[in-house]
Design goal:
Elements: H1 2-8, E1 12-15, H2 28-33, E2 38-44, E3 47-53, H3 61-74, H4 77-82, E4 84-88, E5 97-101
Antiparallel strand pairs: 1-2, 2-3, 4-5
Organism: Noccaea caerulescens
Protein name: Transcription factor MYC1
Keywords: Activator, Transcription, Transcription regulation
Length: about 100
């Protein structure tokens, strides 16, 4: 679903995700085990946001717009990137990435 939403540049709203065919939604078994009923994928900032909820929610464009506006209000990529520094820790076998966020 996320790949299709990104490729098409459109929102995909899937109700009864736990019963979807594996070809349509490859994580339907996972959705079933987690009681996920509704999944929504939409393109955002060059990627995709995927939300899953345990309630059955019919497609609602005003709800989607509300979610997107909340993301816009809380997403500040320029400010975030200016205050972000990262380095790779090569001291252990896990080769972890450490990220430090500073105020400013």
């Amino acid at each position: 679903l996320p790949g299709r939403a990104l490729a098409m540049g459109e929102t995909i709203w899937l109700c009864n995700a736990q019963y979807a065919e594996n070809k349509l939604f490859t994580r339907s078994l996972l959705a079933r085990s987690a009681s996920i009923q509704t999944v929504v994928c939409f393109p955002y900032l060059g990627g995709v946001i995927e939300l899953g909820v345990t309630e059955l929610i019919s497609e609602d464009h005003s709800l989607l717009q509300h979610i997107k506006s909340c993301l816009v209000e809380t997403s500040k990529p320029d400010c975030f990137l200016n205050n972000l520094s990262a380095h790779q820790d090569n001291d252990d076998d896990k080769n972890q990435m450490k990220i430090k966020i500073t105020d400013g």
